[in-house]
Design a protein that fits this description.
This is 2-phospho-L-lactate transferase. It contains 13 helices and 14 strands. The protein is of the alpha/beta class and 340 residues long. Bound molecules: the ligand O=c1nc2n(C[C@H](O)[C@H](O)[C@H](O)CO)c3cc(O)ccc3cc-2c(=O)[nH]1.
Length: 340
C-alpha cells in the first residue's frame, strides 16, 4: 500500500489526477491518493463561495466535468446566471452554470453552518466515488490578487489590485501583472491533514499546474513548503512548460511577471532542488525539452524526458506511472524508465 500526495491546481491538476487515479486503480488499488488543492482562486460571488480548483478536480474525478472547457459541469445550463446578469449581480463574464451553482450553494450552506472549508469539501466530495481525498491547501481565505497598472489615470505608476479570476477570465491575463499577492497568506495555516499528507506520504507529486498562482499558493501557506522539504518521501514534479510554452492556461504570463523564464529548466530551478533547500528531487520534462536533461541532472535533479501532453486518460496514466517510477527509483524500490 502506498500513500501518494499530489499538489494540484485546477484544470491541469484535474487532468493529471484523473490519469494518476487510473494508473493507481490498475497498478496499486490499495494506494491512498490525497490531493492538496490550490485555494488562491477562490472567491465570494453572488453571495456564494466559489472554489474553482477544488471543483475542477472534484468534477473531473466524479466524471461530471465539461471536457471541452476543462472547468465546470458537463450538460450545463445557464438560466440562473442569465437572471443574475439581468439583475446586474455577479460578474457577467464569469459564468456560473446551474449545476455548478448547486455546488456553490451547498458549499456556502455548509460554511454558513460553521464547517471549515476542508470539512465542507469532504462533505461535497462524499457524494461521488472520487478514489481520492481532496484537501484544500488551507481553510483560510487566501485570495490571489494581481497588481496591474491603473487604466485611464494620470499617474503612470498608479496600480490597482484585481482578484485573480478577474485578471484571468475577464482580461485573459492581458493586463500586465506587476505582482501577485495572496491576501491573508502570512496568517493562514494549512488545512487539517495537509501537513500529515505530505510528511507521511510515500511519494509527493507536483502536478503540471501553474507554478506561480496554483502550486506557488499552496507552497506559500506557512508550513507547507517546509513539510515538502522535510518529508522522507521523494518529491517529483511534472513540467507545465513544453518547448517554451505553457501546456495549458497562461502560466507563461505568470512566470514572466515574476521574472522566471518560460522553460522546463527554469521552472525546475524555480522550485529548486531539495538537496539544496529547494522542493524537488525529480522532474519530468517533455521530449521537446530533452536538452534540459543534462543540465538538470548535473544540478542533481533526477530527470526523465517523455511526452507530457495529456492526450487521453490512458496516456496521462502512463505519465503518472513514469513519475511514480522516478520517485520509486529514488527510494530504491524500482527502476528508472529510460530517457527517451
Ligand atoms: O474562462 C473561464 N473560466 C471559468 N472558470 C475556470 C477558472 O476561472 C480558471 O480556469 C481557473 O480558476 C484557473 O485554474 C470557472 C470556474 C469555476 O469553478 C466556476 C466558474 C467559472 C467560470 C469561468 C468562465 O466564465 N470563464
Amino acid at each position: 500500500m502506498s500513500r501518494i500526495t499530489l499538489l494540484a491546481g485546477g484544470v491541469g491538476g484535474a487532468k493529471f489526477a484523473l490519469g494518476l487515479r487510473a494508473h493507481l486503480r490498475a497498478a496499486d488499488p490499495a494506494a491512498e491518493l490525497t490531493i492538496v488543492v490550490n485555494t488562491g482562486d477562490d472567491l465570494w460571488l453572488t453571495g456564494l463561495r466559489v472554489c474553482p480548483d477544488l471543483d475542477s478536480v472534484m468534477y473531473a474525478l466524479a466524471g461530471v466535468n465539461d471536457l471541452e472547457r476543462g472547468w465546470g459541469r458537463a450538460d450545463e445550463s445557464e438560466r440562473v446566471s442569465a437572471e443574475l446578469t439581468a439583475y446586474g449581480v455577479g460578474w457577467p463574464w464569469f459564468t456560473l452554470g446551474d449545476l455548478d451553482l448547486g455546488t456553490h450553494i451547498a458549499r456556502t450552506s455548509l460554511l454558513r453552518d460553521g464547517l471549515p472549508l476542508s470539512e465542507a469539501t469532504a462533505r461535497l466530495a462524499s457524494r461521488w466515488d472520487l478514489g481520492a481525498r481532496l484537501l484544500p491547501a488551507t481553510d483560510h481565505e487566501v485570495p490571489t490578487l494581481v497588481e496591474v497598472p491603473l487604466e485611464g489615470g494620470d499617474d503612470p505608476h498608479a496600480t490597482e489590485f484585481l482578484h485573480f479570476e478577474e485578471w484571468w477570465v475577464r482580461y485573459r491575463a492581458g493586463r500586465p501583472a506587476r505582482a501577485f499577492l495572496q491576501q491573508g497568506m502570512a496568517s493562514s495555516v494549512p488545512a487539517p491533514g495537509v501537513l500529515e499528507a505530505i510528511e507521511e506520504a510515500d511519494v509527493v507529486l507536483v502536478a503540471p499546474s501553474n507554478p506561480v498562482v496554483s502550486i506557488g499558493t499552496i507552497l506559500g501557506i506557512p508550513g507547507i513548503a517546509d513539510a515538502v522539504r522535510r518529508t522522507t518521501a521523494p518529491v517529483v514534479g511534472l513540467s507545465p512548460i513544453i518547448g517554451g510554452a505553457a501546456l495549458r492556461g497562461m502560466a507563461d504570463v505568470c512566470l514572466t511577471a515574476i521574472g522566471v523564464e518560460t522553460s522546463a529548466l527554469a521552472v525546475a530551478e524555480y522550485y529548486g532542488l531539495r538537496a539544496a533547500d529547494g522542493l524537488l528531487d525529480g522532474w519530468l520534462v517533455d521530449t521537446a525539452d530533452v536538452d534540459a536533461v543534462d543540465c538538470l541532472s548535473a544540478l542533481g535533479f533526477d530527470v526523465i524526458a517523455r511526452p507530457l501532453r495529456f492526450t487521453s486518460v490512458e496516456e496521462t496514466a502512463a505519465i503518472a506511472a513514469d513519475a511514480l517510477s522516478l520517485a520509486q527509483a529514488r527510494r530504491g524500490l524500482g527502476t528508472v524508465p529510460p530517457v527517451e
